[in-house]
């Protein structure tokens, strides 16, 4: 996998004795030519993980590094303790039989143990290989086999069962280590390790060594590059204190942790920002008329002032300062971001409407853009340099090429720099597809630069819908426009590849089970309010679909017609649509771990519904286009 091989970048074992001559390798013990530059960050001498960690310990020795909630209290490790625990883990792995260039699989929610296992694997000369907690046993097998895992670290009994199911098909596996709870059954190769509990407990009463230390909350999947770079590597380099959220963070508990920790920086995937927006809107609806008026005024002032700031006009009018006192500070406090000076989003596209919502509350959300194959961020937005809808400017030491641009300057975005990965482990054909002969990494994303050098993503090559008429249509802008036009819509997916016209799968906003993450049948508060405004008495998704609720179906068609009126061509108009009984979710498999829409999964799951769009004889226009 890309992650597995890019982790090798950081392993001390990969300092080549003679410089590699190729830009890439797929071998576990391969070497690559470092992309050194004459000046700037690209000219800095390379460091191993051990060197980076040693430097951090010498600078931040007694500062807190990791904070875990145990029995209602925060148990903390200092940087010195963190470093020592990682070496203990490295020695443990070697004792258990870890061989050089073999994997240590890590299967669990974000925790100190996860970090320690990750770094311990690298210090011992192995690969640290994150495995998504939502993976099936078969998906776990694919990852573990691919990296020839000698050791797999699991959080609890539930994750252990997945590995026990596939253990007999992993010839390299020598040990399974469980850390989050006591082992329920004794068996060969199964070990229990508690690296942090005893050490952490003694230091709960320590005071922070530095008042201005950055503090972040770790909750995004650590097997994804975004959390890897932010929570482990950038945090280590800058001496950040990392607090671990609860395992149900993405099911609702994240805001509670944010309110308690009050982080100074926060990275949220678009779905996290959207969920916050929905919650804030539903709370706002219950406020008194006067409070709603004040909030609307403050949001208007906030949006206008911040849009002007984007254009370089930094003066703050009196009404903006008043709105800050009356509204913005209270909102930030309610979601735990009152100390947060850096709010970021990445990993998937975010709508302009969500960005404007937070900007109107004086919470500028900056976009990042990159890939696992580029070690995370390639472009970044900054408080003094950002534009709505742009992913910012290229990081110092990195380079961007727009490959084969069209008349509008749109082409494939390609990357170059020291951050480009070594290659896909054991996958030569895939690596040749990703990195061209000149060493450029092809992203598969389409985009363009504006006159000021800001990068705008316009779509994804593989996501493009190519109609029967040959028109290339990026789906995301149309999907976002429909969701914005019809506030009851939760998810929208455009279909119509090789077809004569476009159609759309729609889901409604509903209440989600806090324990399982499964979308329910009850409408969300925002959806209920929408229904009530239209005079509908519906309280459930099933009621709307079974009765083909006239008020709701008419409102949806009206919103889609409004979007169609702005379409640049007839081919880009949505001609038919259908409401699905269940919202998309991680639970149902339609969304990935970073809440990104898995289009092939949805297309397969609802293939019959999609086929029906194009086999029906009814005309693709007007009210009849809505299907029950």
From TrEMBL:
Residues 53-179, 206-425 form the AMP-dependent synthetase/ligase domain. GO terms for cellular component: endoplasmic reticulum; membrane. InterPro entries: AMP-dep_synth/lig_dom (IPR000873), ANL_N_sf (IPR042099). One of its GO terms (molecular function) is long-chain fatty acid-CoA ligase activity. It catalyses: a long-chain fatty acid + ATP + CoA = a long-chain fatty acyl-CoA + AMP + diphosphate. It comes from Zonotrichia albicollis. This is long-chain-fatty-acid--CoA ligase. Its EC number is 6.2.1.3. Keywords: ATP-binding, Cytoplasm, Fatty acid metabolism, Ligase, Lipid metabolism, Nucleotide-binding. Pfam families: AMP-binding, AMP-binding_C_3.
């Amino acid at each position: 996998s890309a992650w597995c091989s890019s982790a090798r970048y950081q392993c001390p074992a990969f300092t080549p004795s003679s410089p590699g001559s190729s830009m890439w390798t797929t071998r576990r013990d391969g070497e690559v030519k470092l992309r050194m530059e004459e000046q700037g960050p690209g000219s800095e001498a390379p460091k191993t993980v051990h060197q980076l960690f040693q430097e951090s310990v010498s600078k931040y020795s007694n500062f807190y590094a990791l904070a875990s909630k145990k029995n209602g209290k925060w148990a903390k490790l200092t940087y010195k303790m963190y470093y020592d625990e990682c070496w203990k883990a490295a020695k443990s792995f070697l004792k258990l039989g870890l061989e050089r260039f073999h994997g240590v699989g890590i299967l669990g929610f974000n925790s100190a143990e996860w970090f320690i296992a990750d770094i311990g694997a690298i210090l011992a000369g192995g690969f640290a290989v994150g495995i998504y907690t939502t993976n099936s046993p078969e998906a776990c097998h694919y990852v573990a086999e691919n990296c020839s895992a000698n050791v797999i670290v699991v959080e609890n009994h539930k994750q252990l069962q997945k590995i026990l199911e596939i253990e007999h098909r992993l010839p390299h596996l020598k040990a399974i280590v469980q850390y989050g709870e006591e082992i329920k059954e004794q068996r060969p190769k199964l070990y229990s390790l508690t690296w942090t509990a005893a050490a952490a407990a003694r230091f709960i009463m320590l005071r922070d060594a530095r008042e201005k230390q950055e503090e972040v909350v770790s909750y995004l999947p650590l097997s994804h590059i975004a959390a890897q770079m932010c929570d482990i590597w950038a945090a280590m380099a800058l001496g950040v204190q990392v607090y671990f959220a609860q395992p149900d963070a993405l099911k609702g508990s994240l805001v509670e942790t944010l309110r308690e920790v009050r982080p100074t920086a926060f990275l949220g995937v678009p779905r996290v920002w959207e969920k916050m927006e929905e919650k804030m809107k539903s709370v706002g609806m219950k406020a008194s008329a006067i409070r709603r008026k004040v909030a609307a005024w403050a949001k208007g002032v906030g949006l206008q002032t911040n849009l002007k700031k984007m254009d370089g006009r930094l003066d703050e009018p009196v009404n903006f300062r008043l709105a800050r006192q009356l509204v913005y500070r209270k909102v930030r406090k309610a979601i735990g971001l009152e100390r947060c000076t850096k709010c970021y989003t990445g990993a998937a596209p975010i709508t302009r409407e969500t960005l404007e919502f937070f900007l109107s509350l004086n919470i500028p959300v900056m976009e990042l853009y990159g890939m696992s194959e580029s070690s995370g961020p390639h472009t970044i937005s900054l408080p003094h340099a950002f534009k709505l809808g742009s992913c910012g400017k290229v990081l110092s030491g990195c380079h961007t090429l727009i490959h084969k641009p069209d008349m509008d300057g749109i082409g494939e975005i390609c990357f170059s720099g020291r951050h480009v990965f070594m290659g896909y482990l054991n996958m030569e054909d895939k690596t040749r597809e990703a990195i061209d002969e000149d060493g450029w990494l092809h992203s598969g994303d389409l985009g363009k630069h504006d006159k000021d050098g800001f990068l705008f993503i316009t779509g994804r090559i593989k996501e493009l819908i190519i109609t029967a008429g040959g028109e290339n249509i990026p789906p995301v802008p149309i999907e976002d426009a429909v969701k914005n036009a019809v506030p009851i819509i939760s998810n929208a997916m455009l279909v119509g590849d090789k077809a004569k016209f476009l159609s759309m799968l729609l889901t409604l906003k509903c209440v989600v089970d806090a324990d399982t993450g499964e979308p329910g049948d009850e409408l969300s508060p925002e959806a209920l309010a929408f229904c009530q405004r239209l005079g509908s008495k519906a309280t459930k998704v099933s009621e709307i679909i079974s009765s083909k609720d006239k008020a709701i179906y008419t409102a949806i068609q009206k919103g889609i017609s409004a979007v169609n009126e702005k379409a640049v061509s007839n081919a880009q108009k949505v001609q038919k649509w259908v409401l699905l009984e269940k919202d998309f979710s991680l639970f149902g498999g339609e969304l990935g771990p970073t809440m990104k829409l898995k289009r092939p999964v949805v297309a397969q799951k609802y293939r019959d519904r999609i086929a029906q769009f194009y086999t029906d004889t009814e005309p693709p226009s007007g009210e009849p286009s809505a299907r029950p």
